[in-house]
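Feature request, filed as a ticket because there's no other form

It would be nice if the structure record came with a short human-readable summary line next to the tokens. Right now we just get the raw output. Example of a typical job, pasted below so the devs can see what we mean:
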Amino acid sequence: MFTDEEGGAAVRIARTTVDEFTRTKRRPQVKEYPRVFEQNSGAFTTLSTYPGNELRGCIGLPLPRQPLIDALVESAMSATQDPRFPPLSPSELDSIVVEVTVLSPLEVIQARTPKEIIQKIRIGRDGLYLESGWYSGLLLPQVPVEYGWDNEEYLAHLSIKAGMAADGWTRSGVKISRFSGDVFHESEPRGRVVREELVK
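Raw output as currently delivered:
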């Protein structure tokens, strides 16, 4: 688990990246960061409107294939260009908040039946990643909490995110992995960084 200080550093790096890349379209050079950021880890950056709290962009790198510092910068730049929305403009920078989720390694859920899969998921703790041939989809652990989904609804939306039917997760050959995430976000644009407690 990341400390509050490390989480604060992660969000500040993401915020600096979002601001600089939106204004200049250049990748910022981050020279100072906690040593733990040199370890390989997945990360997501989420941008939300303030105070409306509407999604404005969310992109990440789920697999630990690069140092966390690189994942933070890459995800932050990409979140400003989320293809679901218009590119973020400099005029919006003072009215968004930045959230960072640092991911644990993926763990494949071993189950013989769909019911077993449902039983092995804990809302608020587990993010999910689905893979099936060309299909793949990921939902962060905070998503089902925000929408009030139960485990089966969570899996249905994961399937839809992957481009499959809602019951796609029940099909043979589908691999579902879980992961945890440390979530930190700004309380207001460029404001205090707080940890989001997902599991009540």
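Something like this underneath would help us a lot:
The beta strands are 42-49, 55-61, 96-103, 107-108, 127-132, 135-139, 175-179, 181-186, 193-195.
Residues 23 and 90 are 6 Å apart (CA to CA).
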